[in-house]
Amino acid sequence: MAGHSKWGNIKHKKAATDAKRSKIWTKLIKEMTVAARLGGNNTGSNPRLRLAIEKATDANIPKNNINRAIQRGVGDVEGWHYEKIRYEGYGIHGAAIIIDTITDNRARTLAEVRHALSKQGGHLGTDGSVAFLFEYIGQLLFAPDTPEEELIEVALAAGVDDVITNNDGSIKVIFQPNNFAQIKATLEAAGFKSELSGVTMQPKTEVKFTGSQAINMQKLLDALENLDDAQDVYTNAVIISE
């Protein structure tokens, strides 16, 4: 099915990520530690850890650092004191926002999230206030120059739930999160490497922003993503460039 343009938003997010590359290692190490603590160090039975290790490898984190993070998570290394906390809130015009954090200081993280929201015109909500507006999915996003028909054929044969071609030519493949590793490997084996991949929370409805409101909403999202303890930020806001 067809979808509206997403590529500009993805390029913006990737550029922002590249600009704060020094923080990426810290966030990925935290994620591996928490994933190992919650699901153990066996990547075969812990898909969250497997995905975290894959991202860490792509970010060129040394193997020793990866192993140390996993060992800390399962208790083989002293000093582990991170916890995963989710905050839910609202942006401009009530746009829904979810902020997943990993922190060693609840009070500090709560204060920073609340400040980032309020400074840019948003506010913190209660647990469950916006989570129902999202659903977990696995996704792969491919650049606009990807051969559409060939990708669709391989993706559907691999058992994906949907293939969405956006107006800008980018293609998003959606599937059940527990099939992430298998589907990604199948598509890569067929020569299709995604620009963005992962397990994410997809909004069931969207709120579109243009003009000055789009700029302000993007500032709010950037402020949240730049927080040291923020791991992922999800929103149903769609920023439309003019």
Walk me through the structure.
- The protein has three domains: 83 residues, 2-Layer Sandwich (Alpha-Beta Plaits); 55 residues, Orthogonal Bundle (Arc Repressor Mutant, subunit A); 79 residues, YebC, transcriptional regulation domain (Alpha-Beta Plaits).
- Strand 2 and strand 3 form a beta hairpin.
- The strands form three sheets. A five-stranded mixed beta sheet has the order 1-6-7-5-8.
- The protein is 44% helix and 24% strand.
- By secondary structure, the protein is an alpha+beta fold.
- The longest helix is centred in the first third of the chain and has 19 residues.
- It is globular and about 50 Å long.
- The chain contains eight helices and eleven strands.
- Shape, principal axes of CA atoms: globular
**How helix-rich are the residues, as a percent range?**
40-55%
Listing every helix as H and every strand as E from the N terminus to the C terminus, the arrangement reads EHHHHEEHEEHEEHEEHEE
The first-to-last residue Cα distance is 24 Å
Q: State the CATH superfamily name of the largest domain.
A: YebC, transcriptional regulation domain
Q: Strand tally, please?
A: 11
Classification by helices and strands: alpha+beta
Major sheet summary line: 5 strands, mixed
Mean pLDDT: 87
Kindly report the CATH topology of the largest domain.
Alpha-Beta Plaits
- Strand fraction equals 15-25%
Radius of gyration: 18 Å
CATH class of the largest domain: Alpha Beta
> Which CATH architecture of the largest domain is right?
2-Layer Sandwich
Number of helices in the DSSP assignment: 8
